[in-house]
Amino acid sequence: MKKYIAEAVGTFILVLFGCGTAVIAGDKVGVVGIAFAFGFALIAAAYGIGPVSGCHINPAVSLGVWAAGRMSLKDMLGYWVGQFVGGFAGASVLLVLAGGVSHGLGQNGWGPGYQGEYGMGAAIVFEFTATLIFLVVILGATHKAAPAGFAGLVIGIALVAIHLLGIRITGTSVNPARSFGPALLVGGTALSQVWLFLVVPCVGALVAGWLFRSKVLEVTEATEVKGGRQIVGA
């Protein structure tokens, strides 16, 4: 249970500070500020709860880790429960801070009236590609052959880059729990479109997990150090 509670706490942090910055200070900090808020929130959570649960705080991440053969189905489902509860809790606190949903809760979306008014096709392509890349970074940075202690920082920086590209397209999800909480509370168009942010990131995560499980990207030999230089087997 400690792992699942940690995932709820971490997802709460991500949604509150990421979506909260977009809603409360977005007009002041802009796209760059919002992107860094999500990235910094992830980094903070990674070093806070990482030793307990690994800090997935994202159902797509847990799905990709499971697909790569690095966690059990039981743990993945437990992580999902914690993540969705944490995402909803974060959105609920933001609802109180923002004084209602008149300005939104940082929900994801696409089409007329939303951000750059990109179509559903662009939203699908972005969310699939961005989640696939995100999971490749995560699975690579957390591999036993990767330098220890830097995974949280690298993954947080990757999330910043993904947000910089995607905020004008979909608001950037790559995380079903981050999308579900705000959409459920806002309702309307946000709730009718949330299916895309539940399904497409998971498909991208499954592809990334398969790439590692099938050894296409997985390191297959132990890392060696020769002559002061790190050698990683291919």
TrEMBL record:
Keywords: Cell membrane, Membrane, Transmembrane, Transmembrane helix, Transport. InterPro entries: Aquaporin-like (IPR023271), Aquaporin_transptr (IPR034294), MIP (IPR000425), MIP_CS (IPR022357). The keyword Membrane applies. PROSITE patterns: MIP (PS00221), PROKAR_LIPOPROTEIN (PS51257). Its main location: membrane. It comes from the Bacteria. GO terms for cellular component: plasma membrane. Belongs to the MIP/aquaporin (TC 1.A.8) family. This is Aquaporin. It comes from Occallatibacter riparius.
